[in-house]
């Protein structure tokens, strides 16, 4: 019997009167018969070797038993079993031979001309003005490593404006909308649809944050929240880890859960209905992210590929970043994690350029066609191979070492019939916020300084002046995204004016 056919009252069908009578009988010394686990559900667990989930059944209170049954019934056991078997079975599997990314697949900064950039910018703005671009934000993580239990996007990195990462990104969307409208003869552009993927751990707090800040000036109906899935945490032999005696320990299924979440929530259909053709996808913890970048979109359309990614050059051979490689000669592009790469590959030099052969870092800034997302939503799930991350998992016995099952956005790239890489400068577009201040890299302090220095350069380029009472390398000015998206149109605001750092320049 399928678990879906089990009556919902399995554990709660006794009336209050019956429970009272049962208690009275117990007081008279006649024990009531022990309640057994639902046999059909127990048999299903046995089929997949997970019957230990009911190991402490006899010790549970009635309400705890009900919670446990509902928890198990909510799991797609055949799918989870397939994922566990395939993922454990792939451990230690032979890694494919890789080649450096062909130069023809990369648009490097030094190759691009001002004319190309201008053409791509205008082409991107035109597509945006026609409502063809949607933006997807990967925002399922909490700021635990930053010392916060809030969603990462709520984090304030200490800018003069005190704006959160969410607000910076929302205002960049607003600015692009205005630029697109100005480029359109009609003077109007449909709102850019912003789809925000949360997790069960960040969903409520993210929604509340947006509501309390009035969506940062965006229209309520242009922002859509949806949740990524979760999967049970497992031991090294594939058994469920129990968080409590009546609850399976679960974790988000990685940012690659995007594809199945878009499918299950029917948001791919929603995008199609709204006329979307292209989808910009990025991670929340980048203070310099250019959301809905018209130049990147114009390049993407110009190349006619199914997917694309922004990349930065590796800072040094041992930098702990995944890099793009070609899977075999003539094969698809894919991301290889630094932990998977042979150490000798990380230091190989291209003799003609003097640079690293494997140099293109993945920084989670992607562009897809909607058609490709539809294909991936089915294809990636069929693969069923997830990355296994060894973590400390909350369990009945305290924190125990176990495995989380995750897929990543870049797992889809080998499926792409065509792909291109677009180099950007680290100091202009990549300021990750991953570690608490005091760490040696990727902190709120380092991200804040990168943004202030970039914006200070914009001010000087626009004819402005900056004064400061502390060394300039420790400070700078902040320009509101509502004033300028990428340094454009600042002459009227800055020329001939002096700004004392730190400060915010806004309307």
Automatic annotation (TrEMBL):
GO biological process: embryo development ending in seed dormancy; embryo sac development; pollen development; UDP-N-acetylgalactosamine metabolic process; UDP-N-acetylglucosamine biosynthetic process
Positions of region (Disordered): 1-37
Membrane among keywords: no
Keywords assigned: Nucleotidyltransferase, Transferase
Pfam families with a match to the protein in the record: UDPGP
Pathway(s) of this molecule: Nucleotide-sugar biosynthesis; UDP-N-acetyl-alpha-D-glucosamine biosynthesis; UDP-N-acetyl-alpha-D-glucosamine from N-acetyl-alpha-D-glucosamine 1-phosphate: step 1/1
GO molecular function per UniProt: UDP-N-acetylgalactosamine diphosphorylase activity; UDP-N-acetylglucosamine diphosphorylase activity
InterPro entries documented for this protein: Nucleotide-diphossugar_trans (IPR029044), UDP-sugar_pyrophosphorylase (IPR039741), UDPGP_fam (IPR002618)
Catalytic activity: N-acetyl-alpha-D-glucosamine 1-phosphate + UTP + H(+) = UDP-N-acetyl-alpha-D-glucosamine + diphosphate; N-acetyl-alpha-D-galactosamine 1-phosphate + UTP + H(+) = UDP-N-acetyl-alpha-D-galactosamine + diphosphate
SUPFAM superfamilies membership: Nucleotide-diphospho-sugar transferases
Bias (Polar residues): 1-14
Keyword ATP-binding: no
CDD domains: UDPGlcNAc_PPase
Annotated family: Belongs to the UDPGP type 1 family.
Protein name: UDP-N-acetylglucosamine diphosphorylase 1
Lineage start: Eukaryota, Viridiplantae, Streptophyta, Embryophyta, Tracheophyta
